[in-house]
Amino acid sequence: MNTMTDTAAAAAAAGTVADANTAPDFRDELLAAGLLIDTGENGLYGRSQIFEDVLERLNVAITRLGADQQSEVLRFPPAMRRTDFEDSEYLKSFPNLAGTIHSFCGDDLGHRRLLRALDDALTDSDSDDERSDAWMAQQKPTRVVLTPAACYPIYPVMARRGALPAEGRTVDVLSYCFRHEPSLDPGRMQMFRQREYVRLGSAEQVMAFRQMWIDRGSLLVALLQLPVEIDLANDPFFGRGGKIVADSQRAQALKFELLIPIADPRGKTACLSFNYHMEHFGAIWKIVCADGAVAHTGCVGFGMERITLALFRHHGLDVNGWPDEVRALLWGDTEARVAQGLQSLQASAAHTGGGA
Ligand code: ZN
Predict the structure, then answer these.
(1) pLDDT, tens digit (0-9, with 9 covering 90-100), for 23-62
(2) Which residues form a coiled coil (predicted)?
(3) What CATH number is given for 7-99+148-352 in this structure?
(4) Separation in Å, CA 233 to CA 116, 127, 223
């Protein structure tokens, strides 16, 4: 079944051997249809107008889904202060995924060295993959790094505001995020968008928020007529110690994911995640509740490209051929349909004696 294309074979030969078993068929179809645009780099794509339209309308549906949350909308560029990133302990868990930003900070002499190294690289190499990166020896780290997850920039901002109000806070964020994991699987991009609702408050407030969003996230996926499967999950912690941390995260049921088949023949792809960080970020940035206790935090993350890809995977590459109900949800009466879905959620919760 895994017929490997030349592109895939070349990429596998170029070092992404772990990906040799992923079926590139769906990726090829997306590129051939022009929905994604190849840059020559695995996991880095352009998006077509149609792809962006679907993603934007999905984003609107998510806004409707959280319309009663009184959330504060905050948008940051896809970079954060390096010191905040260092404080976050991201490097302890995922050093291999982080992206740092470097820039030339030298003088005329350094500039000449850079140009000489670049000139040598351009004349000496036969292919892009073999090209020397010696010019980068002139680059120095800047004070900013790429955002690893959409919610990271908000914690230090919330901490600077002082104690949380009694009802806590809910923040709505959307950002491009970076993860260094080049892959042929279109569901595993290096730069992608995450929409998140983030909750800061007591343990009870955060747990209630997470359960509510597991229900609402499942509702959205059902309205999109995609197969819903919720599963206990763990983050891909790095190294030998990583397995212990991952096991502990599972044992405490801190992370759930909503899985949908996209392109990975080895399994389904996490399209939504529901995370409880306990006091992790609260303790790092000294975020406190109204009563002085360390704040708990949690977030629901929507993988915008992944859900968009799942729609193309399950309903076809031509949006005009998508099921009427799905088209009506995205291009029709989004607000009314989401409100109706939320009402039925409430009704079934009341019927079963209330949610968590
Ligand atoms: Zn988050």
Answers:
(1) 559 999 999 999 999 999 999 999 999 999 999 999 999 9
(2) none
(3) 3.30.930.10
(4) 49, 40, 24
